[in-house]
Amino acid sequence: MRLVVDLNRCQGYAQCAFLAPDVFVMHGDESLLYSPEVEEDRREDLARAVAACPVQAIVVDANFPDTNSGTDR
Amino acid sequence: MSVDGSLDRLKREGRIVVVGASLAGLRAAETLREKGFDGSLTMIGDEPYEPYDRPPLSKQVLLGRATADRTGLPRHRAIDARWRLGVPATGLDMAARRVRLADGDEVEYDRLLIATGIRARPWPQEDEAELDGVFVLRTRDDAEALERSLAQGPRRVLVIGAGFTGSEIASACRERGIAVTVAERADAPLVGALGGVVGRVAAELHRKHGVDLRCGVMVTGLEGDSAGRVRAAHFSDGNTIEADVVVVSLGAQRNTEWLAGSGLGAGPRGIACDAGCRAFDIRGIVTDDIYVAGDVARSPHPLFGYQFLSLEHWGNAVAQAETAAHNMLSDSADRRPHIWVPAFWSSQFGVNIKSVGVPSMGTEILIAQGSRSEHRFTGVYGYQDRVIGAVTFDQTKWLQFYQQLIETTAPFPPASPTVDRRPEGQQPMPADFPDPSVPTHGPTVTLSGYAPDDRRLTFTPARH
Description:
The structure holds 2 protein chains of 2 kinds.
Chain A: E1 3-5, H1 15-19, E2 24-27, E3 31-34, H2 43-52, E4 58-60
Antiparallel strand pairs in A: 1-4, 2-3
Chain B: H1 6-13, E1 15-19, H2 23-34, E2 40-45, E3 82-85, E4 89-93, E5 98-101, E6 106-108, E7 111-114, E8 118-120, H3 126-129, E9 134-135, H4 140-151, E10 157-160, H5 164-175, E11 180-184, H6 191-208, E12 212-215, E13 219-224, E14 230-235, E15 240-242, E16 245-248, E17 252-254, E18 266-267, E19 270-272, E20 278-280, E21 286-292, E22 297-301, E23 307-311, H7 314-328, E24 343-348, E25 351-357, E26 364-371, E27 376-383, E28 386-393, H8 399-407, E29 429-430, E30 445-448
């Protein structure tokens, strides 16, 4: 499962780092580091972090069946 | 709905081609589907990878906390596209509405979105650039190679150029305990983007964390050993530095060469477009079917004197892609302007640096909160008696307030009293940007284009 944090929006509230500390880590007082890809079984924890973010800065893969996995070269 | 139904036809059975399969291309594709585009969608990308995120490459990846192959961008929805990855576009036939690909194929379109972005500027001496141990950092492959090399514990890394990327690389090296020298042609890091007043704070950060920062020097040559591995670099001040890893961080070039001769208004500064993301042709006439978004676009911004801005900003790529996609499927009366207020972030030496507006237009700066000596402050930039930009070092929560001042062309210095104003913040001072006629490296904002009374603002970040 892929995720991205819009760091323009992020204001360092650190709710995500509190709820999913293995995915989100504060780096200094205000900088956030995160794992851009995590295992599918973390979806629930991530959903909690997404919901808790006061500025809604976390985007996680939509849970859709990928009908287009093949890459046409 | 369009009068003659052509827009409905486009949405139902049209062909849209997106050249550039990175952040802007992906977000545009998602927006097209969201707006009800049911026709065929082709995504063309020169790299063999599906869209991935670049900001982590110089941070998480170099720190060894994430691998470069796991930075794929999350999807908001299925886009049901035909992907042509690992095949660069090589030409455009505007009359026949066709994109030529490197493998000889041609793809026809009814609407084209160009989001080919930028690439790292290579070291100018080709034989030196090819030495083992010489890197640039832009792509997933670049990050993977550089990280592998850092993991082997080099004795010293030389970073050439102290813009945002160069500074982040130096920061990652220090965090891994690797000795690092940074060579910057200007008087301080980040001066192109944030000016000398803030640049001197950045220089303190480098030195406090043990970076051997050399300003006001250029690297004149790289030297390899008999096995073709880089071993040393020569500086314009006569010094020689031994380094077994060299990272060239001299800014970026826009990927527009493939459009040469197409008739599109594309050049080294990007592709000129209107505020609705429609590309101009070389005659200065706006096209109806070709749109531009992301780092490669150059569009006029009403808030900044209609200057044409090229922004190498993550948030700009997202916002401009969404606007372009919306406009591609809209009648002229329904089109939206891209008037996103520039904003970016960087994280280095444990400090969160964020900015809104266009600081590089500023002539003065006021330290409105905090203190530079604490490396925690808010700097507000003034231009012609109005607030034009702001930067924060570990004071993110102030930024929104200043963004609103920029959006409402509030007077500079800002009248409102603020908390945490220190003696040094009572008076504005010159922001100390380098003479725009002297090229420098590393700024993330390029101001150019024309406003007859503002010609001196034309700002050349690097030689093309």
